[in-house]
Amino acid sequence: MNSERIIKKYPNRRLYDTEVSRYITLSDVRALVMGGVSFKVVDTANDTDITRSILLQIMLEEESGGEPLFSAPMLAQIIRFYGGTLQGLFTRYLETALNLFAKQQQEVKGAWGDNPFDAMTRLTQKNVELWTELQDDLMRAAGFSLPGDRKKKDEDPS
């Protein structure tokens, strides 16, 4: 059994949710995203996966509808990474950063029962550790060696 929900996009541009057997709107798809539901959008004309395209449409609506998440300089900076040698590294960096941010958001929600200042201090310390690890991993992935790597290599008896 496939746990991924299938949404079909027909040539008339309507979206059909196969799980609930009805047509849905982009707002309904947004609700699925917000609910953490795993889904895939398939174009019925050629069976291609157009999930990214639909998600980008939702983002465009969100960006034009109120306080934007992305500034123009930020979007320009992202566009500059397309086709460059670091595109894959940048993609991994953004995905990892967003995952860390979401994880920390959950931790903050759970920690507010404590003293808020203590919770923020712990969160800040953890942030520094996580970002240091992320930067080290990205530097290694880009082919750079770090000072700590030499020590580990010298200590490793194998």
UniProtKB/TrEMBL annotation:
This is PhbF. Residues 6-65 form the PHA accumulation regulator DNA-binding N-terminal domain. GO terms for biological process: regulation of DNA-templated transcription. The lineage of its organism: Bacteria, Pseudomonadati, Pseudomonadota, Gammaproteobacteria, Chromatiales. InterPro entries: PHA_DNA-bd_N, PHA_reg_PhaR, PHB_accumulat. Residues 70-107 form the PHB accumulation regulatory domain. NCBIfam families: PHA_reg_PhaR. Transmembrane segments: none annotated.
